Amino acid sequence: MNHLLSLKELNTDLMYSIIHRGIEIKKYPEKFYQECERKGLLLLFQKTSTRTNLSFQSGINQMGGYAVMMDWSSSNFSISPIQYEAQYASRNCDLIVARLKKHSDLIELAKHSKVPVINGCDDKYHPCQALSDFMTIYEVAGTFSGVTLTYVGVHNNVANSLVAGCIKLGIKLLLVTPIVNDAAWDEELMQAAYQSGYVENVTDLSEAVSRSDFVYTDTWVDMELFQSADYEEKKNSRIQQMLPYQLNKANLGGHSPYIMHPMPIHPGLEIEEELIESEKSIIYQQAENRMHTQKSLLIYMLNRR
């Protein structure tokens, strides 16, 4: 069974293929209207979602298929071992997109699924987001060669997926990450990243920005913890530690890289509100491209099956 649980499953040629087809789909969507005819997609979500939910539902519907949305907490996945529910659920669809809290649960789901599973985001990876990010970079730069990207913020699932993609596409990635989410850390991935020569840790944000074509930031607090009363003290502590790394005009130091963010945005925290709507912001282009790259990914996964 061919699953997409991180970006490790895709080689360089496959990543290029998915990205280029995403660009083609964006330009000529009518060419793909019947590409997923009568194919069923199960969206199994334990985490809240805007972009993953909307883009996958819109994408498969626009290509002649259909989506079924299932909330983990209101289904029997919440009360029964995953292996049993997975074997049943996967007999009712052609693909599963799972947006779960724990990567270990995603692995268990994939192990017992009868159909391909796509990781729609968990605590370790966010491959669908990264594919959209790389498509956006390619649209703007016209190449990956010679491109430098800075990621500033907490080292999290998004950072991991950017790392995995950059070392395959040949993009220089500067990591300004004073905090690491323990659940996200992937030692094997990071060792490969450092050995590749494409990934570098930088402590000074201004230095990284001065070397970058694109600067990317993300939330400092996981979405499921953002409004948690039990996490409030740790959240406030993390915000105070991260505020010097906010993406703002002062920290850009006169440089004007393209600004990226996977959304949802918390203006005044990880990014200054003025930059969100600035001329160099490509945040909404990133978000729009989620659907186009995911259409391309759906086609690839169904054909592989």
Question: pLDDT below 50 for ≥5 consecutive residues: which ranges?
Answer: none
Binned, the helix content reads 40-55%
Per the CATH scheme, the topology name of the largest domain is Rossmann fold
Broad shape: globular
The fraction of residues in strands falls at 15-25%
Count of folded domains = 2
List SSEs in N-to-C order. HEHEHEHEHEHEHEHEHHEHH
Number of helices: 12
- The count of strands amounts to 9
Mean pLDDT: 95
CATH homologous superfamily designation of the largest domain: Aspartate/ornithine carbamoyltransferase
Structural class: alpha/beta
Major β-sheet annotation: 5 strands, parallel
Indicate the radius of gyration in whole angstroms.
19 Å
Distance between the termini: 7 Å
Describe the model:
This protein is α/β, with parallel strands linked by helices and 305 residues long. The chain has 2 domains: 12-125 and 290-304, Aspartate/ornithine carbamoyltransferase (Rossmann fold, 3-Layer(aba) Sandwich), CATH 3.40.50.1370; 127-286, 3-Layer(aba) Sandwich (Rossmann fold), CATH 3.40.50.1370. It has 12 helices and 9 strands. The chain has helices spanning 12-27, 51-62, 82-89, 103-112, 127-141, 157-169, 187-196, 205-210, 232-242, 249-252, 273-276, 283-304, and strands at residues 40-45, 66-71, 95-99, 117-119, 148-155, 172-180, 199-201, 214-217, 258-260. The strands form 2 sheets. The chain has a 5-stranded parallel β-sheet. Helix 3 crosses helix 4, helix 5 crosses helix 12 (283-304) and helix 6 runs parallel beside helix 7 (187-196). The N and C termini lie close together (7 Å). 46% of the residues are buried. The mean pLDDT is 95.
